[in-house]
Amino acid sequence: MAKAIAGMALGAAAFTSCCLASLPVRAGTCAETPIMARGEEARYVWLAKIKARALWRRKVRSISQLGPDYANWARAQNTEERCLSGGAGTVCIFTGTPCRP
Question: Which of 21, 70, 77, 89 is least surrounded by CB atoms within 10 angstroms?
């Protein structure tokens, strides 16, 4: 049973990499450098991520060459979400290159 599930997962991964790689990508305009934002500490990981993403968006909007058109985390390139948990809570650091459509 485990071999069958592993085989199906491998087949799905091969299909995904094969077919999604061939989809056309709409070229947008991206900033030259990535933006890093360290959110405030939060009790829950999901909340720490929301805080870091909001700070990243605020930073991007505040840069005069970028502004709100670039402030969508879903369009950012080369993104990295790191969260560090400790006794006092979780802090997330989001880094990504802002892009606009």
Answer: 21
